Amino acid sequence: MNVPVRPRDSYAPFLLPGALAFLAVVIVPFLMNTGVSFTDWQGVGSPHWSGLANYRELLHDSEFWASFRHSLFMVVAMAAIPTALGLVLAAALFDYVGKHFGTRIAAVLRACFYLPQVLPVAVAGIVWSWILAPDNGSLNALLKAVGLGSWQQDWLGDPDLALYTVMGVLVWVQIGFPLVVFMAGLGRVDPQLYEAAELDGAGWWRRFWHVTLPQIRPEVYVVLTWCTIAALKVFGAVYVLTKGGPGGATDVPSYFSFTTFFEKTQVGYGSAISTVLTVLILALAVLGLKLQGRAEDGDTP
Amino acid sequence: MTALRRYPVLVALGLAALFMVVPFLIVAVNAVKSPAEYSQNGPLSLPHGLYLDGLKGFWQRVDYSQKLVNSVLISGSVALLATALSVLNAYAIGIGRIRGRTWVLAFFVLANLLPQEALVYPLYYLSKEAGLYDTRLSVIIVFTVIQSAFGTYLLSAVLGQFPREIIEAARIDGANKWQILVRIVVPVSRPTLGVLLVFFFIWTWNEFLLPLVMLISNDNQTVSVALGVLQGQRLMDATMTNAAALLGVLPAIVFFLVFQRTLTRGIAVGAVK
């Protein structure tokens, strides 16, 4: 009789291609990047160890702090506002439109909100730079046409305004993701909970607050975590809309590290910026996963 | 809820939805105007006729056919290869239940979250060393791995629920692990694999940072990179920007219409898992 092989470990060979691929494309580059952040490497020659010098310099670099401050604005634009708006829109689409006008109309409206999500962010940037152009742009033309000519602005060129304009574009880009996730989440809420609330005479807002929201809390945490991480990584929109300008007004960490790598070729310093960004993102991810786990546990009655 | 209150909500939602699609409409309307008409009547007027020379000119100038071929080639290859790699990983984790699978899975989750900024310079450097810099192959390799991090995570959860009896039955019939994977697990998981293919294709199509760094020659650039670089150079006038916007939007709308069901189903699956 054959000696039975332990079936558990014999599946390991299937993991081999993946392990090698991740070693080459993720693990080695990541360790290199972290290592280089402790050097003064310029991309040519051999790197010289400089210890924590790059990180000490970051602490005093106002450009670095500004880029992370702008990241907070991006979190508002890509996580906070889309989640809040997405909740209200999803509940309204699901409750009002889906139930009284048919799921088909709800699906069409949902598709309209989701459309920008499929668009390459570079293309979304081009669409909006064309609309927001100071001369002959559609937005300024519209303002003029309705008699609000004095409201015309150089939306992306005014240092006081550019960050808010970029935020607006990102809300437009992002809103579809929370909406679709929340609508899917609402589909699994027990309708009896609503009926009970309705019998108790709860109005729409109270039902939304006390029934809907607690029920889809896991989805809310997932969306907040994902969107916050996406906001910290935002690059393409800034590259295409403003290139971090005017005068650094819309610079973000990813764009800052990109220019430090490839324009200033201060590779060591750029690596330090991206390492800080990585640590921040991983910390947020762990926090998000914990909250999500707790919300899912708390949900089981 | 009275009927009186329902209609205002519908109207408000309809207006909000209109606001979402207006940018697309206004881009489309203006792309068929001649430059003279645009500068005379502005962006808000309706076009007098179909003027397609602007689009044609832009198409030829950026060699848009080549960019589409590059994007399709890169995104299509990545979708297939990343799905295959995800299946292999998830087979070992979800069905094989290899030892330490929780840690392996945690690794894939972290890899999925890693910002590309933390990989971009080493990848740029290594691809130059390996003679792969400025090739479509380099981008295909990198995104196959990056996308499969998410694929492994999602598929491992799905395959973890795979009915064990089916696998046991096949094993008793004498099928080996590879045969079980190819003849049973893959066909049964086809809906999930379809979702992954579609997502990987669209995500890769939309990628910007790494292709921007890796693909510098015109012949290799993707649609996103070519248009993004043109816009970044600030050399386009309103008509050109408009043509670029329309040509960039059209493929996305096609994918959206073709894959809409898969997309919305997929997001729901991906977020709750």
UniProtKB/TrEMBL annotation, chain A:
Its main location: membrane. InterPro entries: ABC_transporter_permease (IPR051393), MetI-like (IPR000515), MetI-like_sf (IPR035906). Belongs to the binding-protein-dependent transport system permease family. It is a multi-pass membrane protein. Gene3D superfamilies: MetI-like (1.10.3720.10). The keyword Membrane applies. This is Sugar ABC transporter permease. SUPFAM superfamilies: MetI-like (SSF161098). GO terms for cellular component: plasma membrane. It comes from Streptomyces sp. R39. It is found in: Cell membrane. It comes from the Bacteria. Keywords: Cell membrane, Membrane, Transmembrane, Transmembrane helix, Transport. One of its GO terms (biological process) is transmembrane transport. The chain crosses the membrane at residues 12-32, 72-96, 108-131, 161-184, 220-241, 267-289. Pfam families: BPD_transp_1. The keyword Transmembrane applies. Residues 68-288 form the ABC transmembrane type-1 domain.
